[in-house]
Amino acid sequence: MPKIVGIVGKANVGKSTFFAAATLKPVEIAAFPFTTIKANRGVGYIRAPCVCKELGVQDNPQNSACVDGVRLIPVDLIDTPGLIPGAHMGKGLGNQFLDEVRRADALIVVADASGATDINGQPTGLLAHDPVEDVQMFETEFDLWLRALLANDWDSIVRTAQAKKESVDKYLEEKLTGLGIGRAQIAQAVQEAGLDAFRSSQWTKEDFTRFTTVLRKVSKPLIVAANKADRDGADVNVQRIRDAGYRVVATCAEAELALRRAAEAGLVDYTPGDGDFKVKSP
Known about the structure:
This protein is an alpha/beta fold. It has one domain (4-279): P-loop containing nucleotide triphosphate hydrolases (Rossmann fold). Helix content is 38%, strand content 17%. The chain is built from 10 helices and 9 strands. The strands form 2 sheets. Strands 1, 2, 3, 4, 5, 6 and 7 form a 7-stranded mixed sheet that branches. Strand 6 (222-227), helix 9 and strand 7 (248-250) form a beta-alpha-beta unit. Helix 1 (15-23) packs parallel to helix 10 and helix 7 packs across helix 8. It is globular, with a radius of gyration of 21 Å.
């Protein structure tokens, strides 16, 4: 289970609202790009069935909360600045974003399911933009950044591995430890890319490109939060993201934030992630 989850995506799609809904931590929220210029950090929760009801016991977990048979397992969340094309070269707040998200174990890509913001996060007409492009832009920027990071020392890493007749995994791990990427993940990426770790000197440019993309997928698995899914026509875009091969969950961060604040104020009965809520009697 991931320990750190990065909330990522282009600017002005509701990442900070999503973060606030997940953590109830006050953050600046506004309907224009780059409201978030510094990463916000907080604690969210993953839902899981609790054994208390099944076993008929009184559960009092020390490391998580149990609410009516639902275990809420804490996870650290990082709300990152929005990305724009060219972020891997430092455009926008690209360098800051990539520095914040480097140690995340998993990623939530927040996309605008309503299609009402262009690739740079600027407002546009409803359903005017394909949110699949937003997810692909994030993947491209991260891949290019990771590729450039590895390319800086690639020749040296390969020469050392070949001279000692060892797998390149070991030397890549030393390079990537700051990104939270371990040797097992590197070995898995090499295998899934169809490459030989003992013959890295024979990898082509295309092999290296394919390896870095697979490594990102292995080490930073992602799920798409199709935000603003309550808007007219957004269901079409949610399905479009799903058809593109991504794991996707339709969300409405504004509604979730309102419900969580109402529950905190004692106005409703609601556990985060429930499909419904009950208004409390006055």
